[in-house]
Design goal:
Blueprint: H1 5-8, E1 11-16, E2 20-25, E3 29-35, E4 38-41, E5 47-50, H2 52-57, E6 65-68, H3 79-93, E7 102-107, H4 113-125, E8 130-135, H5 136-143, E9 154-159, E10 164-170, E11 173-180, H6 184-199, E12 201-202, H7 205-215, E13 226-233, E14 239-245, H8 246-269, H9 273-282, E15 284-287, H10 296-304, E16 308-310, H11 317-327, H12 329-335
Parallel strand pairs: 1-7, 7-8, 9-15, 15-16
Antiparallel strand pairs: 1-2, 2-3, 4-5, 4-6, 9-10, 10-11, 12-13, 13-14
Helix pairs in contact: 3-4, 5-11, 6-7, 6-8, 8-10
Bound molecules: adenosine-5'-diphosphate (ADP) and magnesium ion.
Length: about 325
């Protein structure tokens, strides 16, 4: 039997994140969620793996393979690789399509016009019939259900892997936005630095991320946690295991967390007064994987005096926003 699905829906939304790419299929929801990682042959530059498979190779590749994150800092490090990645994801998600899909792509707000063009071209080469881009914080705000069409301040703080995007939106437009290259990756780097300084222990990015997720925090925990960490002793050169606590990890993360707090405060300082007044009651919503760091919402609320909510499914907010846009015909007509 023919794939009936293909008859009805051929529009997709893509969250092209610095850490993860998500694909939303119209009428179906999120169908793909994979790391934005590509493994390349260093000699031929041929793509060896994309997504989950490529991420498993990070830090574990032999000399002839290199695993890279083309969107790492919220800018496109390598156009060809980004295109290969986008093609892989679009094709994987749209296998059942009879007609080429229309594609809505959420892109980091710090991206240049040239990079935006490159993303659109890549999607076209990858088989899209029509490509529309939407700034990531806008998609996030829509995805978490903020009433962005109202004449009132809607503020979103999206902490991703490579960038933190902060935006204030009113009447369907971005009033002010700020994108800083401090987010989850920097937190991981801070853990790596701490382990080296405090224990002469060398660990990789994946281990650092695991520590952050398992026992990391931005605010004292009701019940502090601890875990074992394995790595290589930088002096003896041999494998070693140590024990660390959540207090230590919080201390290690604190400078990086402070940079995010600063960026949020700066955004608030630039906010037009009428909108500031709205924020006193409405507060802001957090999205992105970084908002899952324990206590980050509480810390931000303390430091700004505003109510802070973390989205129900912060990792899916942007993709859900692109999905909502696919369903909004007027939006599509105006922008297509
Ligand atoms: P992007 O949109 O840039 O692709 P994501 O929103 O997918 O980023 O978030 C990825 C980041 O979130 C990574 O740095 C990851 O380590 C971090 N992250 C995911 N889950 C958690 C968690 N439970 N605690 C802390 N950080 C997390
Ligand atoms: Mg994101």
């Amino acid at each position: 039997m023919a794939n009936l699905f293909g008859y009805f829906s051929n529009d997709i939304g893509i969250d092209l994140g610095t850490a993860n790419t998500l694909v939303y299929l119209k009428d179906k929801g999120i169908v793909l969620r994979e790391p934005s990682v590509v493994a390349l042959d260093t000699v031929t530059r041929k793509v060896r793996a994309v997504g989950d498979e490529a991420k498993r190779m990070l830090g574990r590749t032999p000399g002839n393979i290199t695993a890279i994150r083309p969107m790492k800092d919220g800018v496109i490090a390598d156009f060809d690789v980004t295109e290969a990645m986008l093609r892989y994801f679009i094709q994987k998600a749209s296998q059942s399509f009879r007609a080429p899909p229309r594609v809505v792509i959420a892109i980091p707000s710090g991206i240049t016009a040239v990079e935006k063009r490159a993303v659109m071209d890549s999607a076209t080469h990858a088989g899209a019939r029509k490509v529309i881009t939407i700034p990531e914080p806008m998609a996030a705000a829509i995805g978490v259900g903020l009433p962005i069409d109202e004449p009132a301040a809607n503020m979103i703080v999206d902490i991703g892997g490579g960038t933190t995007e902060i935006a204030i939106i009113s009447l369907n437009g971005i009033v002010f936005s700020k994108s800083i290259r401090v987010a989850g990756d920097e937190l991981d780097a801070a853990v790596i630095g701490y382990m080296k300084r405090a224990y002469n222990l060398l660990i990789g990015e994946r281990t650092a991320e695991e520590i952050k997720m398992r026992i990391g925090s931005a605010y004292p925990l009701d019940e502090e946690l601890s875990m074992e960490v394995k790595g290589r002793d930088s002096v003896a050169g041999l494998p070693k295991t140590i024990h660390i606590t959540s207090q230590e990890v919080r201390e290690a993360l604190s400078d990086t967390v402070a940079s995010v707090v600063d960026a949020v405060r700066t955004t608030l300082e630039r906010c037009p007064p009428e909108l500031s007044a709205d924020l006193v009651d409405r507060g802001f919503v957090m999205a992105g994987g970084g908002s899952l760091l324990r206590g980050i919402d509480r810390l931000l609320s303390d430091k700004t005096g505003l109510p802070v909510t973390v989205a129900d499914d912060p990792l899916s907010a942007v993709a859900n926003g692109t999905g909502a846009v696919l369903n909004d015909l007027t939006w599509l007509m105006q922008n297509a």
